[in-house]
Amino acid sequence: MSSADVVTTRARRALVFCFLVALCEGVDLQAAGVAAGGIGREFLPTAAEKGLFFSASTLGLFLGAIFGGWIADEIGRKKVLLASIATFGVFSILTTLAPTMQILTGARLLTGLGLGGALPNLIAVAAETSPPSRRNASIATMYIGMPLGGAIASLIVMLIDISD
Fold first, then answer.
1. Cβ-count burial of 151 within 10 angstroms (0-12 exposed, 13-18 middle, 19+ buried)?
2. Domains in the chain, start-ordered, CATH in brackets?
3. Cα angle, residue 125 at apex, residues 71 and 139 outer, rounded to 5°
């Protein structure tokens, strides 16, 4: 193994951190579906409001991915990654406090914006911190994090009784 193939402790930490962020993204994306029954009982949304709610996160993801990657090229990946993580963290928490369906939908849009800004930067950081011989595996691991997080959220719901 050449010195270029050695994964440093710092790089390993960065990869673990990126994977955990991808895992959290997956949990958060699945959370809306998990909470749908409670949202329906709490806010009594119309069909249009439900459609907006479930579309908001995806729209935010789309916009976040476009602008997150572009801004990262201008000011740096780490800055954008940290801002994206903070955005999706704060707005994920704020969704639990939303008093109306409109505010809840707005919080999901902004959560999606943070999620979308984080993902391309997670992939880039994984590629940049991995030695050439492990780069593909590191990138694949980042991609695995999101669906695995969604599966974990679903598993948690299966294991606990969330009915009122």
1. middle
2. 28-159 (1.20.1250.20)
3. 120
The pTM (predicted TM-score) of the whole model is 0.85
What angle, 0 to 180 degrees and rounded to 10, lies between the N-to-C axes of helices 9-43 and 101-129?
160
d(CA 62, CA 132): 29
pLDDT tens, 127-158?
Answer: 988 888 889 998 898 889 989 999 999 898 88
Amino acid, single-letter form, for residue 78: K
